[in-house]
Amino acid sequence: MSAVEMRASGLLDVGGGHSVYWEESGSDRGVPALYLHGGPGGTLRDGSYRGVFDPAGTRVVGLDQRGCGRSEPHVTSPGYDLDGNTTAALIADIELLRAHLRIERWLVNGISWGSTLALAYAQAHPDRVSGIVLCAVTTTDRFQVDWITETVGAIFPEAWDRLATHAEQAEIGYRRGDGRLVEAFAQLMRDPDPQVRDAAGRAWVDWEDHHVSIGTGGVKRDAGWKDAEFRNGFATLVTHYWSHDAFLDPPVLERMHLLAHIPATLIHGRGDVSGPAIIPWRLHRAWPGSELIICEHDGHGGPAMLRAWREANNRHTERLASN
């Protein structure tokens, strides 16, 4: 994606001792758009997400979600209140940021976990959403969490065996076939011993690299894992959210009537084994105002998906600018 310069940034106090980092790019007179990163804990990273928006016609806002990236405090900080990091808290943070930036309504974008958060936010505040664009669509319900942490082990048995063996040997009572592996790792990432947390974090991101690899030319190690704070923060937040099915009850799929009037584009890779295509397909079937784009040769991301993402944002911003 092309480099687009950031033109404003800051830390917003959202209460409870938390501040979220936000940044803005594009035109201050453009159609407001929100970008929600993946993970949980994936962060804005190098800002390359800006390349899926037209900077001349879009006012792009991104934020590092609570507890990760440049938001404060970081989830790995001593004494961090992990129980206060929930989907409801993230939605409240987004609303505070919208009000802070004096944005009436925005085009909400989300990738991977960010698509779950985008859906949950839109269901909570449909009057603040002018459209939705989702890429590598997730719902983070029990079906998908069990799929990504258990079922996909049938495709990557060696990597999954390493993950399950790590939990079994940690002496926390986990045995494969008896209990949820994601809950075992959520427990390990909250262990008071930093060495236990670090070892579990390394094991978790090894699994992450495998299940997102199909369609990308083989298993690729994310260079970001070299940063212990990023690596362990990611593993902590992912297992925390996934072990609670994203704190969404009822799940987003059961509340799609709230979004019936909102135009949306759902973009997904046919080869995405981390989240099979039935996930966006079910959303699309329940969402009359949505279009579904399946990129046949991509996995959990890919060049065709990026093109479709840029084109979808262009269509939505043109629609909104003409209203």
Polypeptide structure, described:
The radius of gyration is 19 Å and the shape is globular. With 323 residues, the protein is α/β, with parallel strands linked by helices. The protein has 9 helices and 8 strands. Helix 1 crosses helix 2, helix 4 packs antiparallel against helix 6 and helix 6 crosses helix 7. An 8-stranded mixed sheet has the order 1-2-4-3-5-6-7-8, with helices on both faces. 36% of the residues lie in helices and 17% in strands. It has 2 domains: 211 residues, 3-Layer(aba) Sandwich (Rossmann fold), CATH 3.40.50.1820; 102 residues, no CATH class. The mean pLDDT is 95.
Quick gist of this model?
This protein has nine helices and eight strands.
Notable characteristics:
single chain, 323 residues, alpha/beta, Rossmann fold, 2 domains, eight-stranded mixed beta sheet, 8 strands, globular
Helix content: 25-40%
- Count of alpha and pi helical runs: 9
- Order of adjacent strands in the largest pleated sheet: 1-2-4-3-5-6-7-8
Largest sheet: 8 strands, mixed
Assembly of the depicted chains: single chain
Mean pLDDT: 95
- List segments where confidence is low: pLDDT < 50 over at least 5 consecutive residues: none
| Percent of residues in beta strands | 15-25%
Number of domains: 2
Cα separation of the termini: 28 Å
**Tertiary shape:** globular
CATH topology value of the largest domain: Rossmann fold
Radius of gyration based on Cα positions: 19 Å
- Total strand count, please? 8
CATH class of the largest domain: Alpha Beta
